Amino acid sequence: MMMIFGMFVFSIPTATYQSLQRSTSWNHASNNRFGSMPAYQYVGKGEDTITLDGSIVPEFGQQLSITALRVMGDTGKSFPLIAGNGKIYGMWKLDEVKETQTYFYEDGLPKKVEFSLKLTKTQTAGVLVGNVLGNMVGNVL
């Protein structure tokens, strides 16, 4: 398993990604000053996004994997994102799925499907861990 997003597992039988790009921003309010450069004030975290680029080849993965991701996006919900090494990224929503099909068989099925997913963070990992632990303790009691 490379990574799990909600109940979707990125792996050879489903879909593999070849690149993970993460972008994090911070917000600063600008206050113009007469005769000088603007003053800036930190006002909080901005967006945190991850883009996963990968491919599916019919011999290993299934094109149905892209459909499953689209169904997850249709829910509008956030899902936990956890790396195969156990790193918890937090809660993320699926913003965009791009798909490119190339090299077709005679029946029209693609020999290769490339995809790109854009995820945006909605909650910190600490909140996710706290919620999970809180639920576990609550279920035990």
UniProtKB/TrEMBL annotation:
Pfam families tied to this protein: Phage_P2_GpU
Q: Which InterPro entries match?
A: Myoviridae_GpU, Phage_P2_GpU
**Domain of life here?**
Bacteria
State the name under which the record lists this protein: Uncharacterized protein
